[in-house]
């Protein structure tokens, strides 16, 4: 007769084998459903992109030792139907808007930054139609300037399934814009803050 330990080993081995094959079946079925829904051929529309440039001197905005650093924020319109990304194994979808551009000093290198992201929790909210959306992040480059660059915007998505690995992809369309040189006559918000403080101190001394 089998000992209790041998019986436990046989049951555990059988259970693990069943769990492995069941998990593999779920993942394969999930990928089959994604391909059947043509999720890697989803289109999107990214329009009306309006960038604005500010010069920052804080290290939280990329500045080093108080050296001025250009930061870009923007507004944009976005249309994308992501409902096909949802099926029985989709927990949620992470969507993010990126811009890719070449370096000014090294044109053969490229950088990619993220301006905006959003978590889509269910199929009912997966058809995005957004207008005049503000970017969530203030973006800067490793170089001092990010203006006078050609940026290519693209919408990416990331499926987080209940079972299986993360699935990454992007929509087919891309939108190109050129960031105009910053108006050197305009002051950044940080410079405005320092100027206002100087004025207040001057008034206080006069009084």
Automatic annotation (TrEMBL):
Does the keyword section mention Membrane? yes
What is its subcellular localisation? Endoplasmic reticulum membrane
Task: Give the UniProt record's GO annotations in the biological process aspect.
Answer: protein targeting to ER; signal peptide processing
Membrane topology is: Single-pass type II membrane protein
Q: Which family does it belong to?
A: Belongs to the SPCS3 family.
In its UniProt entry, what is this protein called? Signal peptidase subunit 3
> Where does this chain mainly localize?
endoplasmic reticulum
Secretion signal span = none
């Amino acid at each position: 007769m089998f000992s209790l330990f041998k019986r436990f080993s046989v049951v555990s081995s059988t259970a693990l084998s069943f769990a492995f094959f069941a998990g593999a079946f779920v993942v394969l079925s999930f990928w089959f459903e994604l391909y059947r829904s043509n999720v890697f051929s989803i289109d999107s529309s990214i329009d009306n992109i309006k960038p604005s440039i500010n010069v920052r001197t804080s290290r939280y905005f990329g500045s080093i030792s108080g050296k001025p650093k250009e930061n870009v924020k923007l507004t944009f319109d976005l249309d994308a139907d992501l409902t096909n990304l949802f099926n029985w194994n989709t927990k949620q979808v992470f969507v993010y808007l990126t811009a890719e551009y070449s370096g000014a000093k090294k044109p053969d290198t490229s950088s990619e930054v993220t301006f905006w992201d959003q978590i889509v929790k269910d199929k009912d909210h997966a058809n995005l139609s957004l207008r005049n959306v503000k970017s969530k992040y203030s973006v800067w480059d490793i170089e001092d300037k990010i203006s006078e660059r050609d940026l290519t915007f693209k919408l990416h998505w990331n499926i987080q399934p209940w079972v299986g690995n993360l699935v990454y992809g992007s929509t087919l369309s891309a939108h190109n814009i050129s960031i105009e040189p910053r108006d050197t006559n305009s002051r950044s918000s940080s410079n405005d803050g320092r100027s206002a403080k100087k004025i207040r101190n001057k008034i206080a001394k006069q009084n």
